[in-house]
Amino acid sequence: MSKQFYITTAIYYVNGQPHLGHAYEMVLTDVIARARRSMGQEVFFLTGLDEHGQKVEQVAATQGKKPQDYCDEMAQTWKSFASRLQLKNDDFVRTTEARHKRVVQASLSKVHAAGQIYKKLYEGFYSTKEETFLTEKDRKPDGTFDPAYGEVIKLQEENYFFKLKDQQTWLLEYIEKNPLFIRPEYRRNEVLGFLRNNVLEDLCISRPISRLSWGIPLPFDPNYVTYVWFDALVNYITIPAALGDMVVSSALDTERAAPPGSQLSLWPADIHVIGKDILKFHAVYWPIMLKAMGLPLPKQILAHGWWQKNGERMSKSTGNVVDPIGVIDEWGIDAFRFYVLRELDIGPDGNWTDNGFQARYSAELANGLGNLVNRSLSMLRRYRSGRVPAPSDELSPDARQAVSKMLALLEQNQLQDALQTIWSLVNRANQYVDQTAPFKIAKDPAQARRLDEVLYNLVEVCRILAVLLRPFLPDTAARIYGQLGLSGVPDRFSAAEWGGLKAGHQIGEPSPLFPRKDMAGTER
Ligand code: ME8
């Protein structure tokens, strides 16, 4: 089987409720995955949950639950969140699954056998809250630590470490030679700066079982569990291995779980989509881990920014949060998907405002796209009983230009610009209605041919818009197709060629895609 386009999100800590930031990451990954499918590529989209660690163990205990029971409940919450967002993911990984644990252990064995893991006594500061070892560098001038670390204790403990020290040079060269490895460019520069100006410290990858039992045991020492990143990052290869990917299975000597003939070819990943806060783990530690396992590196790490609300960090304690499910219940999933991708390019931080959301809903969705589709279809029904007239190609150059520009942007994962390009066609078609005034020429029988031309151009643009919008707004695209009386879903960009609607085709019933809302009273 030829290699699929393999794209992943980060895996989410199960000890929290899903929020806007997670929804954004999931939706943007879903759009890239769907866009690739529309390009005709075979795609595998993986998302999932990070379920081990002290915090999960503690939260479960405070609720009087076993950690696994707690994780099982949270997994339901997260899976239903993903489905409300209309993710078309191909698998959902949970780090407590046997298929994941097996491959984590195989990867640890491999790296251990290669001499890259060693044991040493650690003596120093430890933040229980952040579950992390701290060094002198983390101390403030007055000797204290940032309050975010909570209580900081002195700890003496033997642990396993993964060697990073000798790995800096090749990684730096690799990133310098491969400009697309870390995107966007300024995030790449951050990593380059970090590697040029710091000496990598070896990474502690274990916790004694006496202190933490909720983890995957080290295959070479049952008194320890593996800790956080050696468990979490490895998810990106455990699912390929479980599905029979030969690259991973042969590097790690894992048996192929999938029956012969059904195995997928996934590794190396094409894109890991992650947030800016975990860039170092993905762009520095993960490549070094992969090299130690004898595996090729992912092709790209795409780091997005963080959302704030009203210019401030979202925080439950101050009530400054956006509840994606509440927004979806009120405005619909496509309005949510549209806003987050139209508002924020992949890279910088974004700012959610309810007013901004409503303004885009009203201007771009209701009055822009919704109005275009509704009036185009309504006029065709009113003036031609819903029958498509003979093809005409007045707007074909505009459509062709929008399609080719959008495809080029999608190749670069420039989703915001791609949406803007689609809207340039929406605006052009709305302007065409105003310029040609079909409601006026409909009154003049001598202009019947002209009216046919105008109506054809409008409904054909609506059809093409459905094709282009499908990855972004899957429901809306399907509804436009349905209202046009077309069967199936517009899931191939090749269908965006001008002339798809045939003369005599009977369209369906138009109904508003984005009902106008009374904005007064919805101010929050
Ligand atoms: O870090 N805006 O999990 P996580 C945008 N389990 N993105 C945000 C955000 C915000 N306000 N808040 C969080 C973890 N994110 C680890 C990852 S991967 C092998 C292990 C993003 O649940 C964040 O940047 O804390 C990250 O990419 C993702 O949500 C998961 O965060």
- The 3D shape can be described as elongated
The bound ligands are: ligand ME8
- Major beta sheet summary: 6 strands, parallel
By DSSP, the count of extended strands is: 15
| Regions with little confidence, pLDDT below 50 for 5+ residues | none
**Distance N to C terminus:** 52 Å
Mean pLDDT rating: 95
Residues in helix, %:
40-55%
Proportion of beta-strand residues: 5-15%
Radius of gyration over all CA atoms, rounded: 27 Å
Number of helices: 18
Briefly note the structural class of the backbone: alpha/beta
Strand sequence of the main sheet, in spatial order? 3-2-1-12-13-7
Protein architecture, described:
- This protein is an alpha/beta fold and 524 residues long.
- The chain contains 18 helices and 15 strands.
- Helices cover 46% and strands 15% of the residues.
- The strands form four sheets. The chain has a six-stranded parallel β-sheet with strand order 3-2-1-12-13-7, with helices on both faces. A four-stranded antiparallel β-sheet has the order 5-4-6-8. The protein has a three-stranded antiparallel β-sheet with strand order 9-11-10.
- Strand 1, helix 1 and strand 2 form a beta-alpha-beta unit.
- It is elongated, with a radius of gyration of 27 Å.
- The two termini are 52 Å apart.
- The structure holds ligand ME8.
- Ligand ME8 binds next to strand 1, helix 1 and strand 12.
- The site of ligand ME8 has 18 residues, from strand 1, helix 1 and strand 12.
